[in-house]
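Notes from hallway chat w/ T.B., transcribed later so I don't forget. T.B. wanted the structure written out for a chain they're using in a teaching module, and asked if we could keep both sequence and structure tokens in one place. Agreed to drop them here.
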Amino acid sequence: MESKIKDILVCQNVSKTFPGYNGKTENHVIDDISFSVKENEFLVIFGPGQSGKSTLLNILAGLEKPSSGKVFDNGELVTKPNPKRGVVYQRMALFPWLTVKGNVEFGPKVRKIDKIKRDEITKHYIDLVGLDGFEKSYPNQLSGGMQQRVGIARAYANNPDILLLDEPFGHLDAQTRYLMQEELQRIWETEKRTVIFITNNIEEAVYLADRIILVTNTPAKIKKEYKIDLPFPRSYVDPEFLRLRQEITDNMDKSL
């Protein structure tokens, strides 16, 4: 009998409001969002820019508290950040005074993993993201794509159950962005993690996702879910890829 894949993260009826500028009205950003994520699933949350997706990701990470609703990570209520949930942002906050090796080993070092094991972990993930030979380089000596590889390696090295990525390739040029999508898909296939990936780029969403949650414009609500059954590696010109891209685009709220 095939074992059932468990839900690793559950978002229940989450809403978020912020105070308005005049102190009286409220800015309603997220409205009653519920979904669950399976172990090792690659879930993409897709929708217009400025629709509350990043706020939702911060709530999942424990960096923001919902105004109502709850988030559970392996059955435990999320109330604060936890190393089990690694976060990678669009503008990677690497430590500029540390080398590639220093950045990647930072988490294991804080967790007081002994040096031999820490060096083994660090080398493994630097090699995994294709930065062998750049261990002694500093962030300002790296391209944007290479910096994001360091960020992904650093997140993986902390051994999270869940990776939360907030438009990590949004600031890259088109060619580098495409190459990084290929790299992320390869890394995920090589060493599986549960991934929640935020984007407003439809090609990126269809290229990477097992499942896409389409959200509306602000306040963000779930409009529709799409199961993406295309085999990897995917092609942007595959007829089914193009059909899905058009269907999801047609159903998407337009940005204001």
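Follow-up for T.B.: The chain is about 35% helix and 25% strand. Might be a good example for the class.
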